[in-house]
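seq:
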Amino acid sequence: MYQWLRHDEEMVAVCGFSASDLTQAGQSARIGQLRRQIGPSGGAFTVQPSEMQFWVRFSWINADRCSGRQHALQHAVIRYRPEVVSAPDMLRAAVEHADVAMSAPLPPQTVITVLGAPVAPGRLGQLFATEQLLRPAGYGRGDGSWIGDRGYVALTDWVAETDSALIDPTPGYPLATFDTLPMVAIGQDGDLAVGSCPEGSRYFVDIPWPEHPDTERDHDVPSEPFACWPAIPLQTNFDLDIAGQRYCVIFNGWYVDEEIAANLLDPNRYNWGDRISAVIHSEGELERLRDTDRLDEYRTAQVEIATLRAVRRGFRTARRKLNNLAPSQGGFGKFFERYLAAHGEPPPNDTGWTANRFGSRYRHPSHTMPHVRQQHGARLVKHWLTFRSLRPAVPLEIVDLTMSPGGV
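struct:
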């Protein structure tokens, strides 16, 4: 930490370190205190507020799969809630986190919330067994088809078996665009709770019907709405690892437009390519395309462009922040140059995630920054425990998150 801070004055200021903290005497005193806490048996140690600010920002700056790391310094809101240790309180903290993220003039803003006390590696600790604040339901049919999101059919079935009232339909969307599944949390003492995000904290964006990208012709738009999507991607299935101590952490940035469009078109998610094509293409147009050998190529490209533009139009109308590839990569390039200048080496970088055009069939690299593995320092670690790992014998508390704390 001290080595890093010697090269990064902006990080010193953002995290709130004083000049005396960084003197030789201040560093020696703090290191001595940590050594006494850890002792010969490797005990737990306390993390001071400025240090928590540093390690959270450091872990994000070095997250090799994120192209939005420049916001770790300029814009991120870091919150530490050590009192949040029970599963019901974890669920409430996630909803509160969403409200904080959406309180900015142009929401969402980036927020990272650290929950509870740390645990040593190898211990389960407190965590979420679901991956985000909001996940869409998927309903399988007997003939192998589905409505909603195919990726969450199994979770939807589990929730329905537990209590079908926990699945909250989104009114007005006949194909179950985003019927909301509940979160599942495991508290510090192993207590298990499930609860659905209240409607007022979901912040859905209405996405209009896609329009043909190449013509100005009017086409018949179905009477029902096309789709909706939450404005905030709030990730819940990560831990923050600081020198071997792990904390439950939840965080959000904002969506990339191609990510949402890809989900709606993905054959293993919503698979709406034909639904959109049936609206934007006239029968005569499809007949002309069938006379060539390029039907799938042209139609698929037009559907992709139309869907992407509809997503952008919906978020723009709702005044919700949405990233696209060009500014995302431009910002990542500036972050790369700053990191290189400050530390004399390139940042950790998984080019499979940061250098390729999202959703493109051709996947041309959008920058030439090298692939560098993360090897040291605090890390954001994804855990893989899901609802499938929950023990049936553990009592499940259903929490009504629309009520004040204590309401069940």
